[in-house]
């Protein structure tokens, strides 16, 4: 299903027929137009409407709605499609293992990059920087490679079947093959002189992969091995010589030696008759097993002699034997009675540079047009063509976002030109670089899965321009209902100093809990979010409900919350006030208008004590006085003394001053409240003076 | 692989996912609102957790309210009423969806609604059939019932209406198209509105508390084209905004500069004209990075559009629903 590799690269100027000029198709089957994928929903037509919505990362949800009908079937279905790149070769679980495993090497390399660049800003010599950098990249590459599977271990201990030419071991993955290839060409500066030999090794490891789409030396060998059992006189069989020459052409010397020794003249009963012939074959075998090879070391069981430096190597090649390899080739081929003139890639690899390799590769591809090319061959051609953009596009198309996001590090280590190309800001991309773009794309793939979204931030923060923006969006889209996800979210915010995102997340969580009956958790998270506006609302709401319902049961329910609020919220006033407030409301209810009783006097005392108390929130002053209007306007005689009335008037004065301050909280009272309180107080004052 | 998440009931007319993609709200032709929930955050199996009657007539659009204001949706009904519903647990009662507020008007119908969070709080922009745009402001952040009419737009040319279709997340801009009432069918509740180019971008002028047009998204030859849909791409750091406008001809992608010139206008540039959907365009949705545009249309396909490294937009893939 949809394998949408986002962001194909640019392959302008590449005469590859599978890329239609400017766009690399993401599906080899559809070179000239976008692919159409079936979206199976299983509903009975007709379909009335499609509604689309993006979910995590690259996940698209499509609501398929049917026309209303009475057929008893579902009216619609929501289908989710993951547009991330999948790789049939690697299981989802394996992918996740690779994704998690590559985080540490990637992060380490990024931190090294930033420390190196800060060092170079401090004018430490740039050459020093270059010398060290590829070593860091190699370390990174080795870490990544170890995730992609283990190298074939040479089976030295088992008794070898002399007739077994090719060992069948666990199949390597194309992904690892591609990574190795990139490492060989771009990152491993130390092995640059031995590049051909590294390619020979690479081919030994991965030629079997290429066999899936085309005839390779490996597939020839495997095919020949199957026939081997039934062959009597092996040297009379032309394929024997053809296979030997193919193996020699790509430098699999030990295989050649092994095969030569299958020659009939080695048979015990033949040795007597064919002594000369056997001597010749053995001489060839010995010569081949002593062939000079320019490489650091050879694994046990490998044929050839190592030369580390080019001069020594060249001397060995030319010592009395001008065209050693070709001669060898000719000997073998002539022994077989074969037409000499077969191509030989191996000597060319040794003597020529990349340029001629490329032209040779192009020539080979023209000579043998293939119906479908293996993705590794496409990548190889891109690398030999020394076109960074093509290599990127091939990586993206064939191996997906993980590969591009990680392999750009190898490519930038390879050349300054690639470094500039991948890291320069582009207007087309909204001022980000290609490297950043590929990291963003990969981060979105990670974000598509609930098990991998947590590692997306590592890649996002390495994007200077737009990574943080995407990270903020990603975090805001995480659900807050589950505490585990919520805490993880907050932890990520803390790691990357995203305070505003973190407080927004906590605000959403607070409101969620508050509205879903978990008031304590709601208040807690709103406090964490420092959401004063909502906390004030809650405080007022609590006081209101305490004021309204004075049953002990509901009071208890609020008590804990008040305590929670009181410890941090300045405006909440604390329990002390709440108790007094409740008592006051109680006594106010018992007051009967017109009759001076203990109840009315007690209510007036409560009012004064509340207004005197410093823990009474200012926002409650006016509501308290407004609630007490009937006490202030007491008919029979004034309930408040002159000094008490003055105290209340002073509080009113203080309130009107406070109104000018920005943090003043407006209370929800009728507009005439203040004036009616003022009038009542003034009247009371007059009457109290007269009485006293 | 595609995966089936939810089966919807017969008569479902619209659906909408919440901010985290964990809840789905679906409206039906008989006025029911259904809510589907994932069992846990890792699960992809959804079950219906609630079903409530919202209105006598069908629901035509469901919009989730930003999560800072609770788990709530706005339902636009076929007769033009707008109601806000919220999931709450009150006192000892079980979890329920409760009506918070209903906006009704005898003279005009609500056509569309959008929410935006600004510094001062939650705002709701509603487009009415009488040609007015009304902007409401929520008074109490914990209660969805108290709304104050902040602005009733003062710039309507006669006989024209504006329809806000896409609202930028931070409420700085609103997109509007002139909308001409073309046809009133025999069914009095159904009016057809066609939006026509030029498509305009309006900006809210905080200092003077009014909306002002700042840019026009149309080429001279396209004036009068019918507009189907519009979508504002999320901006994660570009120095310009990206807007997709679908007309009956094609999808135009516009870049909108963010620095106003001396007249207060913003620069616009049409960067792509994409054709693919034959017929009417239903919906356009940008992914979270604003790099992929998904579209659906009456040709029954979902198409995905991306730009290559040279800024050239193209159709990347199409999804064709089959049984």
UniProtKB/TrEMBL annotation, chain A:
The keyword Protein transport applies. Keywords: Membrane, mRNA transport, Nuclear pore complex, Nucleus, Protein transport, Translocation, Transport. One of its GO terms (molecular function) is structural constituent of nuclear pore. Its main location: nucleus. Residues 1-26 are annotated as: Disordered. The keyword Membrane applies. GO terms for cellular component: nuclear membrane; nuclear pore outer ring. It comes from the Eukaryota. GO terms for biological process: mRNA export from nucleus; positive regulation of DNA-templated transcription; protein import into nucleus. It is found in: Nucleus, Nuclear pore complex. Belongs to the nucleoporin Nup85 family. Component of the nuclear pore complex (NPC). Functions as a component of the nuclear pore complex (NPC). This is Nuclear pore complex protein Nup85. It comes from Morus notabilis. The lineage of its organism: Eukaryota, Viridiplantae, Streptophyta, Embryophyta, Tracheophyta.
TrEMBL record, chain B:
It comes from the Eukaryota. One of its GO terms (molecular function) is structural molecule activity. One of its GO terms (biological process) is cellular response to amino acid starvation. One of its GO terms (cellular component) is Seh1-associated complex. Keywords: Nucleus, Protein transport, Repeat, Transport, WD repeat. It is found in: Nucleus envelope. Its main location: nucleus. Pfam families: WD40. The keyword Cell cycle does not apply. Belongs to the WD repeat SEC13 family. This is Nucleoporin seh1. It comes from Morus notabilis.
């Amino acid at each position: 299903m949809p394998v949408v590799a986002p962001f194909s690269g640019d392959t302008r100027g590449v005469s590859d027929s599978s890329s239609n000029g400017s766009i690399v198709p993401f599906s080899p089957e559809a070179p000239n137009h976008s692919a159409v994928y079936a979206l199976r929903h299983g509903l009975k037509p007709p379909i009335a409407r499609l509604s689309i919505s993006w979910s995590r990362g690259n996940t698209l949800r499509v609501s398929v709605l049917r026309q209303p009908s009475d057929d008893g079937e579902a009216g619609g279905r929501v289908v989710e499609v993951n547009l991330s790149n999948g790789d049939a070769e690697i299981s989802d679980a394996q992918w996740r293992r690779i994704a998690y495993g590559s985080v540490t090497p990637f992060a380490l390399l990024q931190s090294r990059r930033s420390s190196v660049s800060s060092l170079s800003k401090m004018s430490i010599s740039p050459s020093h920087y270059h010398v060290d950098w590829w070593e860091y990249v190699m370390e990174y590459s080795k870490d990544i490679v170890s995730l992609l599977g283990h190298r074939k271990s040479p089976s030295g201990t088992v008794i070898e079947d002399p007739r077994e030419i090719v060992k069948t071991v666990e199949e390597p993955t194309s992904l690892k093959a591609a990574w190795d290839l990139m490492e060989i060409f771009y990152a491993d500066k130390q092995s640059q002189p031995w590049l051909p030999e590294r390619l020979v090794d690479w081919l030994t490891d991965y030629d079997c992969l290429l066999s899936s789409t085309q005839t390779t030396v490996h597939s020839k060998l495997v095919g020949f091995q199957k026939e081997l059992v039934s062959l009597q006189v092996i040297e009379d069989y032309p394929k024997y010589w053809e296979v030997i020459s193919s193996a020699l052409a790509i430098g699999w010397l030990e295989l050649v030696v092994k095969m030569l020794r299958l020659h009939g003249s080695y048979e015990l009963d033949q040795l007597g008759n064919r002594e000369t012939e056997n001597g010749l074959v053995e001489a060839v075998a010995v010569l081949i097993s002593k062939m000079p090879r320019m490489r650091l070391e050879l694994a046990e069981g490998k044929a050839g002699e190592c030369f580390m430096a080019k001069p020594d190597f060249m001397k060995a090649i030319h010592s009395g034997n001008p065209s050693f390899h070709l001669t060898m080739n000719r000997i073998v081929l002539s022994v077989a009675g074969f037409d000499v003139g077969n191509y030989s890639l191996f000597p060319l690899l040794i003597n020529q540079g990349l340029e001629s390799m490329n032209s040779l590769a192009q020539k080979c591809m023209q000579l043998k047009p293939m119906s479908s090319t293996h993705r590794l061959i496409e990548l190889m051609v891109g690398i030999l063509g020394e076109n960074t953009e093509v290599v990127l596009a091939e990586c993206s198309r064939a191996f997906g976002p993980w590969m591009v996001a990680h392999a750009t590090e190898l490519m930038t280590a390879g050349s300054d030109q690639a470094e500039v190309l991948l890291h320069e800001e582009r207007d087309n991309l909204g001022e980000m670089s290609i490297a950043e773009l590929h990291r963003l794309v990969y981060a979105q793939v990670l974000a598509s899965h609930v098990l991998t979204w947590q590692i997306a931030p590592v890649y996002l923060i390495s994007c200077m321009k737009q990574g943080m923006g995407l990270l903020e969006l990603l975090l805001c889209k995480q659900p807050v209902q589950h505490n585990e996800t919520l805490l993880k979210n907050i932890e990520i915010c803390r790691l990357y100093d995203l305070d505003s995102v973190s407080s927004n997340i906590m605000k959403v969580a607070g409101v969620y809990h508050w509205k879903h009956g978990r008031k304590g958790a709601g208040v807690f998270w709103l406090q964490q979010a420092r959401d004063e506006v909502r906390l004030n609302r809650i405080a007022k709401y609590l006081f209101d409900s305490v004021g309204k319902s004075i049953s002990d049961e509901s009071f208890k329910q609020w008590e804990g919350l008040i305590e929670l609020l009181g410890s941090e919220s300045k405006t909440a006033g604390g329990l002390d006030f709440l108790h007094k407030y409740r008592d006051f409301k109680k006594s106010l209810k018992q007051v009967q208008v017109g009759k001076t009783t203990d109840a009315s006097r007690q209510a007036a005392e409560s009012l004064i004590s509340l207004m005197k108390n410093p823990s009474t929130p200012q926002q409650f002053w006016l509501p308290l006085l407004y609630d007490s209007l009937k006490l202030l306007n007491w008919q029979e005689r004034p309930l408040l003394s002159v000094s008490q009335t003055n105290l209340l008037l002073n509080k009113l004065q203080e309130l009107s001053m406070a109104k000018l301050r920005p943090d003043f909280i407006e209370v929800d009272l009728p507009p005439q409240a203040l004036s009616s309180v003022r009038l009542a107080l003034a009247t009371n004052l007059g009457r109290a003076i007269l009485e006293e | 692989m595609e995966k089936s998440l939810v089966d919807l009931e017969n008569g479902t007319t619209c659906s909408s996912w919440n901010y985290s993609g964990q809840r789905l709200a679906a409206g039906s032709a008989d006025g029911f609102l259904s809510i589907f929930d994932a069992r846990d955050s890792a699960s992809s199996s959804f079950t219906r957790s609630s079903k409530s009657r919202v209105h006598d007539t069908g629901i035509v659009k469901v919009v989730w309210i930003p999560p800072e204001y609770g788990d709530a949706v706005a339902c636009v009904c076929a007769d033009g009423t707008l109601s806000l519903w919220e999931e709450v647990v009150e006192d000892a009662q079980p979890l329920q969806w409760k009506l918070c507020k209903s906006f009704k008007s005898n003279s005009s119908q609500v056509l569309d609604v959008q929410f935006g969070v600004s510094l001062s709080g939650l705002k709701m922009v509603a487009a009415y059939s009488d040609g007015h745009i009304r902007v409401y402001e929520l008074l109490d952040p914990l209660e969805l019932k108290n709304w104050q009419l902040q602005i009733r737009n003062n710039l309507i040319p006669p006989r024209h209406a504006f329809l806000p279709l896409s609202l930028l997340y931070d409420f700085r801009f609103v997109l509007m198209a002139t909308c001409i009432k073309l046809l009133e069918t025999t069914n009095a509740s159904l009016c057809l509105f066609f939006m026509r180019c030029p498509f305009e971008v309006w900006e809210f002028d905080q200092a003077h508390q009014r909306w002002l047009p700042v840019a026009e998204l149309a080429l001279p030859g396209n004036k009068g084209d019918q507009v189907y849909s519009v979508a504002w791409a999320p901006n994660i750091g570009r120095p310009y905004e990206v807007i997709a406008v679908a007309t009956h001809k094609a999808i135009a992608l516009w870049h909108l500069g963010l620095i106003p010139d001396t007249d207060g206008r913003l620069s616009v540039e049409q960067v792509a004209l994409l054709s693919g959907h034959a017929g009417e365009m239903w919906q356009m949705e940008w992914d979270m990075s604003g790099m992929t545009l998904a579209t659906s249309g009456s040709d029954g396909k979902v198409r995905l559009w991306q730009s290559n490294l040279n800024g050239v937009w193209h159709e990347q893939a199409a999804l064709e629903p089959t049984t």
